[in-house]
Q: What sequence folds into this?
């Protein structure tokens, strides 16, 4: 089996093992990834604060740091496993892996799991139609596609800098 396919499967499994247990254990901890109406209702109920909204400075900083960490890890992966040596090889390989995990997240984890799981429902927000807002998740997937570009560029840079 092609190494790229194996990597893609492993990354999707790892992403699932990171996201699903944490959301199931504490849905409010992932409120920044919930549709805005649900986040607003959770704030209204006093379950969280504005600083946990997806547009808050703190959430943006944390996501930027995570993206930097992901870029470094992807650089290590594509350099050692895929034998990427050039900026272009590192950028294209990492962006391809990013896209697979991004759309796996949007379609499988968000549209299939999140939109249909009772485990993600925050008390007091039961019955909100936004839990089945597929458009929100597809739009988030499109945003993820765009965010992947600078991450992949960083990977390309890191690949050229790694020994």
A:
């Amino acid at each position: 089996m092609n190494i790229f396919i194996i990597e893609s499967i492993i990354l999707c499994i790892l992403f699932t093992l990171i996201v699903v247990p944490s959301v199931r254990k504490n849905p409010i901890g992932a409120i920044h990834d919930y549709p805005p109406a649900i986040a607003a209702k959770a704030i209204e109920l006093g379950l969280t604060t504005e600083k946990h909204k997806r547009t808050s400075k703190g959430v943006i900083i944390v996501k930027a740091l995570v993206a930097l960490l992901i870029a470094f890890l992807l650089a290590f992966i594509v350099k050692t496993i895929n034998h990427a040596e050039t900026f272009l090889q590192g950028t294209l390989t990492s962006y391809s892996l990013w896209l697979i995990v991004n759309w796996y997240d949007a379609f499988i984890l968000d549209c299939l799991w999140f939109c249909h799981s009772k485990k993600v429902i925050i008390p007091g927000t039961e019955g909100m139609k936004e839990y089945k807002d597929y458009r929100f998740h597809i739009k988030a997937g499109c945003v993820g596609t765009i965010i992947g570009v600078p991450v992949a560029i960083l990977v390309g840079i890191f690949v050229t800098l790694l020994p």
